[in-house]
Design brief:
The complex is a heterodimer of chains A (250) and B (252). Chain A has 250 residues and is mainly α. Chain A has 11 helices and no strands. Helix content of chain B is 35%, strand content 24%. Chain B is globular. The chains are: A mainly alpha (250), B alpha/beta (252). At the A-B interface, α9 of A face β9 and α6 of B.
Chain lengths: 250, 252
């Protein structure tokens, strides 16, 4: 493998550390925001009735559009087009003390792109819960949203935790594309080390290992969540009975 | 990378083709002119002239600041004429021809900017550069402490950061700045190159280590083009406005 000084001594080590902090922040914001946004979109898409039809149509258009345009195109659009508008820059100006606009554009692009995928995960999860669950919950006197939050969503989360993990890991790896906007993430710093030392293999190997550690940590977190949701490993999930739900409500 | 000594000259003469890596987005060194499909520029014209001198056809391959040395060492191109500064760090990886163009590193700012040179930079200013180039390190060496930098993947991207206010200046060699200024002025965004150049920028062609016959033939061709006046014609075609004093190529 040759000489590892380029990543184990300064300035290379410090550059990778700086890049790691940027990557972690990008991933954290993108994951939290896109999970919340994805949940809201999914809830909107499974509403019933004619009154909410325009909402469903709009959310479907959103999901299909942002799922089907390459991420790099979306990021360049946010960073180079949207942020060239004075009003947009003014809106985000209060944040500029902490984050430059390129970082904000990166978080926006990653969040919107990932939220479209997560919305699909949650929507299919919600629609896979048997109709009888909702009917029984409503018959026991819960409101629609009460039934949604207490009966349907907990079951949905158990079935979708694996697919959600895939999206989190995807979002983490996709942070590397933000370097196109001039954001100095881990991959960017690896390229900097390569440009300075012409020893790119070591820098990229280090970055690969760091990404594996980050993504494994995320999987571990989700496994904990899965356990919290009461799923025994290797056993199929058994939906809570309505009686159990009512008992926890009482 | 193979450790066998390469002899690209013999191969090029046998095939009748020499592949040259040039930029496609760096006016006036190598770029696609408005409405054209063929790459043009100072590097491009000079490469063609050298090819004629050697009796081979030149084939252009697009490279950028990040991948040019990789493309050279992987054998995708035999020569780099890609607005490339000759630096000690690069000299350890590749070999260079004699210098065929020289200018200094300077700053490009919007016409209404209050910046007049490198001494005006500081903690309040951000300067844009491109990844894979030494400009950022050179700037930090010469500029007042605390100046911020932001790094993009191409010079047009760096230029556009000035439009968005993400950076207040772009720094690179005057030649590239001049090209950016032309593009920007044409787009209705007037720019100015300000201040005295604060570092030398010797530009040379790059070759694989030990490709000595080709380097020698290349150097001879450059000097021959200077003798016949062809170099001066090409120089003035691209630099008569920005740097009217024709550069003098020296034998090594």
């Amino acid at each position: 493998m040759g000489n590892w000084d380029s990543v184990l001594t300064q300035p290379g080590l410090g550059m990778l550390w700086d890049g790691l902090l940027v990557t972690l922040q990008l991933a954290f914001y993108a994951i939290v925001l896109s999970t919340v946004l994805g949940m809201l979109i999914a809830l909107g898409r499974v509403t019933q009735g004619r009154r909410t039809a325009p909402l469903r149509w709009l959310l479907t258009a959103y999901v299909e559009f942002f799922r089907n345009v390459p991420l790099v195109v979306q990021l360049v659009f946010w960073g180079f087009a949207v942020f060239s508008v004075e009003v947009v820059r003014g809106f985000f100006a209060p944040l500029n003390a902490i984050y430059p606009n390129a970082f904000i554009a990166g978080v926006l692009g990653l969040t919107i792109y990932t939220s479209a995928y997560i919305a699909e995960v949650f929507r299919s999860g919600l629609q896979s819960i048997p109709k009888g669950q909702m009917e029984a919950a409503r018959a026991s006197g819960l409101s629609y949203w009460g039934a949604m939050f207490n009966v349907i969503i907990p079951q949905m989360l158990r079935t979708t935790v694996g697919a959600l993990g895939n999206q989190w890991i995807g979002a983490t790896k996709n942070t590397s594309i933000v370097l196109f906007l001039g954001v100095a993430d881990l991959v960017f710093q690896a390229q900097e080390i390569e440009a300075a030392t012409f020893r790119g293999v070591q820098a990229f190997t280090a970055v690969a290992l760091i990404f594996v550690v980050i993504c494994l940590s995320e999987s571990f977190l989700l496994a904990q969540l899965e356990r919290r949701l009461g799923k025994k490993r290797g056993k199929p999930t058994t939906p809570l009975t309505v009686t159990q739900v009512i008992r926890t409500q009482a | 990378m193979s450790d066998e000594p390469t002899d690209s000259l013999t191969e090029a003469l046998a095939d009748g083709v020499l592949s040259v890596g040039v930029k496609y987005d760096t006016r006036p060194f190598g770029f696609i002119p408005e409405g054209a499909f063929e790459v043009a520029g100072f590097d491009v014209d000079l490469a063609r002239a050298v090819g004629e001198q050697l009796g081979v056809r030149v084939e252009f391959v697009q490279v950028n600041s990040q991948n040019r040395i990789l493309n050279l060492n992987s054998g995708k191109v035999d020569v780099l004429m890609a607005s490339m500064l000759r630096t000690d760090a690069r000299d350890e990886m590749i070999d260079f021809s004699t210098v065929y163009f020289s200018d200094g590193q300077s700053l490009l700012v919007p016409a209404d900017s209050e910046l007049t040179g490198i001494e005006d930079l500081g903690p309040e200013t951000t300067v844009a550069t491109v990844q894979g180039t030494p400009e950022e390190a050179v700037l930090l060496e010469h500029a007042p402490d605390g100046v911020h930098t932001v790094t993009y993947q191409s010079w047009p991207d760096a230029l556009q950061s000035l439009y968005r206010g993400e950076a207040q200046a772009v720094t690179t060699t005057v030649g590239i700045l001049y090209g950016l200024q032309q593009s920007s002025n044409a787009a209705g965004r007037p720019m100015e190159i300000v201040g005295e150049p604060f570092a030398d920028g010797p530009i040379a062609a790059g070759f694989r280590e030990g490709d000595d016959e080709l380097i020698q033939a290349f150097d001879d061709a450059l000097l021959e083009l200077q003798e016949t006046g062809t170099y001066e014609d090409i120089y003035l075609r691209w630099w008569s406005d920005a740097l009217p004093d024709v550069y003098e190529i020296e034998a090594r």
